[in-house]
Write a structure and sequence with these properties.
- The structure is a homodimer.
- Chain A contains 9 helices and no strands.
- In chain A, helix 1 crosses helix 4 and helix 4 crosses helix 6.
- The termini of chain A are far apart.
- Chain A binds a DNA duplex through helix 3.
Chain lengths: 190, 190
Amino acid sequence: MKKETRKEQIIQTSAKLFKEKGYAAVTMRDIAKSLDIKAASLYNHISSKQDILKMIIISIAEEFTNKMLEIYSSEVSTIDKLQSIIALHIDIAYKNPYKMASLNSDWMHLEEQLKYYLELRKSYENNFRDIIKKGVSAGEIQNKNIEVTLFSILSTLRSLYLWIPQKEDLNPKELTKNLSEILIDGIRKH
Amino acid sequence: MKKETRKEQIIQTSAKLFKEKGYAAVTMRDIAKSLDIKAASLYNHISSKQDILKMIIISIAEEFTNKMLEIYSSEVSTIDKLQSIIALHIDIAYKNPYKMASLNSDWMHLEEQLKYYLELRKSYENNFRDIIKKGVSAGEIQNKNIEVTLFSILSTLRSLYLWIPQKEDLNPKELTKNLSEILIDGIRKH
DNA sequence: GTCTATAAGCAGATAGAC
DNA sequence: GTCTATCTGCTTATAGAC
């Protein structure tokens, strides 16, 4: 029932190319060629190359920030919140493997929206940090260096997009379970 | 006693700029401007922009692969090997925060050396995977999905360069201890 | 909605003077 | 070792025909 518009095609195709070579190295001719049209025709649907990047990154960044706030505000244990965050990252990465690459690697090429993007990211990270801090206070999380704890988990979650598309034998549900166990309880056998 | 040559200056300055904007978005004029010379003067020291990228990436990639082979071949427990790998990443990231960015984000812009780089990375990852597998067999590591286990640790280690330069209050020794504990034993308090 | 033609500027790299 | 001048080709984007 739902028809993919030309504009959506352009965004998806661009995201795929941006993942392979990065925003700066992809030309409007590259994008057009992937769609079997000429570069000039792109401008009937989008206003500029920057416009494409903006549409790829901002929607995903807003989704992360909004969902993080929901998790932060929910009244469950810290461990449950962490599991929800892990599930959130896996869900978005499965649905948007290409856009995730731009979010992680091409955000610095944003122009007008750069400041807004950085605010979204800051909000996300602050809420994440605070969840961990409250977990330490509540005796659920070990009292290690907060930044190292945050960084360690976040690095893995942010890198998911690099890794998910290759392992299609692993479904999101099982990956969420595996990854939660490893990130929360480690890998050592006792 | 040791004097930094112009060539070394060019490589360091380029690495710093590549970290900020990525290889493709940095021009020879940008690099020259950072060194207060003209773009044409760069070519007296290096042969091309590609040449700079090659020198940044390959030396670090070889160091990782060689040191990983040493760790792999050493006769210590799996946990000790993992701690050595963590220490290796922290050591290299502290010494080369800019070059690490190119290694992680600009390797796809390598031309003649791309195949060689991919071989080095493959060798590194295969040895890492095998260390984990042997740890499972020896009963030191939990029998979870090997790829998830490998990916989780490697993502954190590969992202260190994004995070280390900002936290200069944390010394390498302490970071190694903290990160080892978190990656190996998790964050949950029992 | 796509095309051809083209503008205006920037890219990497070289030649040759000093 | 650095400079100025310059080549050649590629970049994003627009104008206007169909």
